Amino acid sequence: MASNELSIAENQFVHVMILATLIVTPSFGIGSSLFGHKVVQKTGKEIVMFGRIEAVIIAFISASLLLTASLVKGIPTSLVQLNVAAIIGIGVAKLGFRNIFRKTEVNKFFAMWVIAPVISFSISLLLTYLADKLDLLSL
């Protein structure tokens, strides 16, 4: 676990988890408040229209894949990407493979799924390099 690499004592681990939760949770809330309606509009209206039954199927597929990947194999997964993939799957079942993948919105999602990890890796590498050069990593 990361606490071993960071040399966090067992009695301080709970404090670190609480502090991390207090920092991360508002960030997710602010992000979903600012950008959430755009994601819902793009996935729910511009890819394919779906009703209540399809929404239940999407939620079931996403939750099943998320729990299976994270609990069985310990793989971190993105709920948003699973939801979009399930919506695309419903669209393929309703409209066909060619009709869904001709839409520019679907192509934008796939482009972002390729670009976002590269940007994230680059920023993480830059910050780690700067922290190493500034001697912030030696505890």
The rounded Rg comes to 19 Å
Amino-to-carboxy terminus distance: 18 Å
Oligomer status = single chain
Q: List the uncertain runs.
A: none
In DSSP terms, counting alpha (H) and pi (I) runs of 4 or more, how many helices?
6
Largest sheet: none
Residue share in helices? Answer: over 70%
Q: Shape, please?
A: elongated
Average predicted confidence as pLDDT: 78
Report the strand count: 0
Strand residues, percent: under 5%
Task: Encode the helix/strand succession as letters.
Answer: HHHHHH
What structural class do you assign from the helix and strand content?
mainly alpha
Give a verbal description of the structure.
By secondary structure, this protein is an all-alpha fold. It has helices spanning 2-5, 10-47, 52-72, 79-95, 97-101, 104-133. The mean pLDDT is 78.
List keywords for this structure.
139 residues; mainly alpha; 6 helices
